[in-house]
Sequence to fold (435 residues):
Amino acid sequence: MRIERDGMIITDDTRECREGTLFVVTGSNEHYHDQAVAKKAQLISPAEVMARFLPNPPAIIGITGTNGKTTTAAAIYSILLDLGYKAALLGTRGFFCNDEKLAPKGLTTPQFLETFAFLLEAKARGCDYFVMEVSSHAIVQRRIEALPFALKVHTNITQDHLDFHKTFENYREVKRSFFTDDSLKLINVDDPEITFNPKNASSYGIEKVATFKVDSYTLRDGIGAVVRFHDEMATIDSELVGFFNLYNLVAALAAVKLVTKRSLEEIARALENFGGVSGRMEIVSTNPMVIVDFAHTPDGMAKVIEAMKEREVIVLFGAGGDRDADKRPKMGHIAATKAKRVYVTSDNPRSEDPHAIIEQIMQGVPSEFSERVHVIVDRREAIGQALRELQEDEVLLILGKGDETTQIIGGVEHPFDDRDVVRSFLSSNIGGIKS
Fold:
């Protein structure tokens, strides 16, 4: 990438280098710095870039965790805007600034120089805060090493990305490493996998004593909860559903309290305006009840299913190709044992054979639950059959792809949006489906 600042060309790509260019040496390109020097570029570190070109950035709030990053980050961003602050949001869904989308989806956490460019844009637009998702890949590859976080938020640690990290222990330690410094931190104290530097650390929780403690809650018709912070109390009232979303909302409430010092009640009122994130527990239809969610890990799947425990749950899912294969049978086991009926299908098979992926998923299905599991490789066909067989008292959870608009098969992206497929079936009343 190449940007210009104060008459200087700054790049992290040796192909852009020439005499006088500033070449940012990062964890991803450090092996190429000799090439930059040979082109008479000047070497500069990310820390030097920040100090020289953006000494006073917006307050950066970083959120990391296996699940909940996107919703928590979006909720923080929404609350800040509703409280009258100018804010930016960078993550899975793209880059947003003051309620305007400025860049499409990319990496959850981009390379340092791209994030720096977004920070410059946020600063130019007067942003007080810069909310960003922080992935485990970004921590390992040191994409965030120079960013002066005003607050670091932890959601949870469960299995994911073992194709990259190899073991859960490695993955867990990477997540933990984000919280070892003295910066202001907000920790989910109910998560048994997290360890952290207690200096400048606050906590939130439902089960354990915490700085921000949920005293009571209900999950009927949305989320209602009473949260206590020292001598302050506030009530959360949200249309979002699910126990896991209660954690996300409390994390957002607490994060905004820590960085703004506004009253807890005022923040809770602003939180009521947050309607959730596209593709995250998104209700596509109410009659029949169909929900689309991004859940693509064993823990994420379990939490989504348990969130709808007051109804008969039907699950449709697959697993991504060229990704952690170890989680596939675990997802099969969770779906088969927790749902009334299951449709196993393709997700984004990428370069893998979708039949082979499904076979690995099915290895986790206990034999006594096999009759409730249906295998339909074609995702569109699977959605159609699931809708045709859906009963009035059941809810269909379509998991794995969320708000993705393509399906990657054999390296080719095909237009495919679970939500559009559902709406198409319902509007055409194909096969007797009632809407």
Observations:
- The chain has a mean pLDDT of 93.
- The CA atoms of residues 244 and 303 lie 6 Å apart.
- The radius of gyration is 23 Å.
